[in-house]
Amino acid sequence: MFCPNCGTSNETSAKFCFKCGNPLPIIDQSAQRSTEPDPQALYKAVIGPKNPQHYLHKFAQFDQDGKPSATWHWPAFFVTFYWFIYRKMWLHALIYFFLPYLVMIPIGIVAAIAGKSTAADLILGIGYLLFLVGIFFLPPMYANALYYKHCQKLIAEAKISSSDYQRQLGELSGKGGTSNILLIVILILSFISIVGILAAIAIPAYQDYTTRARVAQAYIAGTVAANSVGTYYSQHHALPNTIYEAGFTGTVPPSVREVLVNNQNGTILITMAEPPISGLSFSLIPSLDNNKQFIWACTSSEIQDKYLPKNCRK
Questions:
Q1: How do residues 107-117 score in pLDDT, each as one tens digit?
Q2: How, if at all, do strands 281-288 and 294-299 pair?
């Protein structure tokens, strides 16, 4: 026996529904076959235990009027797409999801044909305004009516598939009611959003960190080359043509494309080899102190300060 309140299948001898606890009707099977099913019980079965009174009141009004009419529904206003999913109105949810593309693409094509003109801008503006009004206000205005038609369709299918009242209730409780897919969709979308936010923060931060580390390695190699140039100048009173001529024996990191020394003014130019600063350079510029020793100043007009060592920043 199926519970007319929640549609749960119970033992034939049960007096109370084991799920919702409501008393089960005592049905005379011979009388049941000759009577018309209770419309309210069918509505209850297809609506399910979640907020049935609201919809039963609306459905009774629609039945009395002979047709559904526009009535406001707040859940369908605030969470339209999720409300469709929650009430198992899959086709409505799919249409609502793709509706922006189905509407705006033709409007965009018409505007493109019209070209850059006041008329095209007017078409786009009016079309977009009408779309916003429709997408925000029409679904909540006709949500109860759409759900009424959806339930009517399920009830008609249940009556066609079986003439047994209890089987109809069972079929309606299975096809109707609410869906937990809504919660799953929210969790998935929330997870995707959180991962996207974390990725948007973490990936650039990690890239900045690794770039700073590579520039720091290049700066260390540059200071070693600068010391070699300074030592060469103090010994020969001339500038070398290359850092290797100056006696540089250090290792140039893979992230550095080249380290050049200007034999006219002694400036050492370090050029990076890896993105996002591939091909960009920073310089070590020498000056003589009172003891005729080189003092090196680090500067760059190409690499952003956030990638440079502190003593190289502007």
A1: 778 777 766 67
A2: antiparallel
Establish how many alpha carbons lie within 13 A of residue 91's alpha carbon, considering only the half-sphere containing its beta carbon.
Answer: 4
Predicted local distance difference test score (pLDDT) of residue 110: 74
Rounded-to-integer distance, Cα 298 and Cα 295, Å = 10
pTM of the model: 0.54
How many residues does the structure list for the chain? 314
Closest to 153 measured CA to CA, from 2, 43, 6, 40: 43
- Domain positions in the chain: 29-178, 198-312
The residues pairing with 285 across neighbouring beta strands, listed in sequence order, are 297
Q: Which H or E run includes 34?
A: helix 29-34
pLDDT for residue 14: 75
DSSP string, 265-299: T--EEEEE-STTSTT-EEEEEEEE-TTS-EEEEEE
> Domain 198-312 is of which CATH architecture?
2-Layer Sandwich (3.30)
Rounded to an integer, what is the distance from CA 158 to the centroid of its chain?
38
Tokens of 86: 């929650």
Token pair, residue 10, equals 């119970």
Strand partners, 284: 268, 298
**Per-residue pLDDT tens digits for 123-147:** 778 878 888 888 999 999 999 999 9
- Distances from the Cα of 4 to the Cα of 18, 38, 162, angstroms: 13, 10, 16
Task: List C-alpha distances in Å: 303 to 103, 185, 202, 311.
Answer: 46, 44, 21, 14
Predicted local distance difference test score (pLDDT) of residue 2? 64
Both tokens assigned to 20? 């919702």
